[in-house]
Amino acid sequence: MRKWLLLAAAILLEVTATLSLRGALDHPALYVLVAVGYVGSFTVLALVLRAGLALGVAYGIWGASGVALTAILAALFFGDPLTGVMGIGIALVIGGVLCVELGAQSAGSARAARSHDEGAPS
Questions:
Q1: 54-83 as b/e, with b when 16 or more CB fall inside 10 Å?
Q2: How far is CA 7 from the centre of its chain?
Q3: How close are the terminal C-alpha atoms of the chain, in Å?
């Protein structure tokens, strides 16, 4: 559970930094939040990996969630376009990340079964 909370924190830090980057165009003081957000995000992402989440899964969820949340929040905060085609793209990205997660779980189950079988007496 800890690794998932850390991953959520890394995502929120990255999205905050990215949105702040846009806001910093008009309010340069926000560049501090950009730097803190990105450094914090990568630091927490490293903690996620240390907690045992696979790199492909962690990075996939982090990246896809960041893209989806940034697009949605940029539309809300800055009036950026959010079209139906963009919505389909976001759904495809989320679907792709779910496939990676399911594949990782399946690989982990197969690995555990092989370990169990190798340790069983003949």
A1: beebbbbbbebbbbbbbbbbbeeeeeeeee
A2: 7
A3: 37
Single pTM value for the model: 0.81
Q: How many residues appear in the chain? A: 122
Distance of CA 82 to the CA centre of its chain: 20
Q: Can you say whether the dihedral through the CA atoms of 73, 74, 77, 82 is positive or negative?
A: negative
Tokens of 70: 């940034």
DSSP state for residue 28 in the 8-state scheme: G
Which pLDDT score, from 0 to 100, does residue 122 have?
Answer: 54
Residue ranges for the chain with pLDDT beneath 50: none
Q: What is the 3-state secondary structure (H, E, C) of 30-49?
A: HHHHHHHHHHHHHHHHHHHH
Interhelix angle 55-78/84-119, rounded to 10 degrees, is: 160
Write the DSSP string, 47-83: HHHHTT--HHHHHHHHHHHHHHHHHHHHHHHH-----
Q: What is the pLDDT of residue 93?
A: 87
Task: At 41, list the tokens.
Answer: 């995000």
